[in-house]
Amino acid sequence: MYCMKRIHYIPVLLLLVAWTSCLRPSDSDIVSSHSQPFKDGSLVTALSNAPSLKLFNKAFTRLGLAHLVDSGRGYTIFAPTDSALMAAGYTEQVLNTLPEDSLNKLITYHIATAAMDETAMQGPAVSIKVATLRSDTSFNQATGYTVNNYFLYVLKAGDFFFNGFTVPAAGERISASNGYIFPVGKVLSTIRQDFLLDIIDQEPDLSMYREALAVNDSIRVDYFNNTFGDALSDSLLQNAYWLSHQMNPLSRGYFPTLFAPTNAAFKAAGFHDHEDLVQFAKSGAHYGYTDDFLTFNQTPLDTLVGRMMLYNYSLAYKNTAFPVMVLYGDLTTPAINNGVYNIFWAISSNYIFDGFNMHLKDGLQFSANDGVASMTWHNMTITIPHDDNARTATRNFVTPYGALYKVDKLFYPIH
């Protein structure tokens, strides 16, 4: 019986083979694709043939990096042109005599470990975080050796934005068999390794901002100390702890963007000293009880300071692969006003028993004119000054733990 079934199937199979042989290639739903030849070959070959990247290529060759970028993975090289390197002081003589370790740090930070074309860098609503080939090793007697990897936040919005700083394109994209090369008009700078609170403490024109954080926290801590006998603070900034410690996104980490009011901003709003801040904070702090729990109303100072930041809490929560940090370039694109990236997500200040209940605040509206960003809330608009050069920045600061942008105005009075 089994042999009879097999005999009946053979004519059917022969008919199917004959029918498919008559099909034209265009009749198929699946169109065959063939890899396109790259006239510039691999990244190593393409780099060596780029006339405007001779200095970068010489440094690249001196370091022997060819084996890294030809290892079968995709890469993107943001290569400063010869003129960009020389403008930063990296002449051919300097590159030839620079200690190899220093040269390695310089060059490898310009090589991202992912193949990205313009679409990849323009598509996301905010800058994308990519690893570079740069890594340093540090030693601590308590923890031993640690490998520190360096990342780039990349956005293409007209010009490039690297870590939130503008870098002009300096030539057409060069496509290679294992990635892309983008000639750029500046040497890229790594981000600062400070915590945000360290930056606030180091900047003299942010002393009133630091006072505001301390005053606001102290009011809450004093009250809860008196009530419970321990410091159950539920302040906006958690006693500024989260601005001075490394956070783990797997727990409750976040990467806030602070629009830090300068002393001039506070004085323009009528706050001249510590006592002014204390009186303002106390004017609206209310405590109460319900049948179930204690309530604590947000102080006006909490609102004043909180309005000037993007908390980015929920965007980073348990998101180690793609943590979100809103940077300057992101503020210049319409996509930022999507009801997600332009809002303030805060730890609840209403219910002490549920300290991590999330509250959604009104969103800030961002816009840009000639590359300078502004933010608007309740018909009040604040310009956000932009530092063009990461190496000499005095108003824009980006760290692994968040970003800080100085502004000279407050959203005041509070509505």
Automatic annotation (TrEMBL):
Entry annotated with the keyword Signal: yes
Keyword terms: Signal
Pfam families, per database record: Fasciclin
Coiled coil spans: none
Domain FAS1 residues, every copy: 40-188
Classification via InterPro entries: Adhesion/Biosynth-related, FAS1_dom_sf, FAS1_domain
Segment forming the signal sequence: 1-23
Top-level taxonomic group: Bacteria
PROSITE patterns per record: FAS1, PROKAR_LIPOPROTEIN
Claim: Signal is one of the keywords in the record: yes
Transmembrane portions of the chain: none
Name of the featured protein: FAS1 domain-containing protein
Native organism: Chitinophaga parva
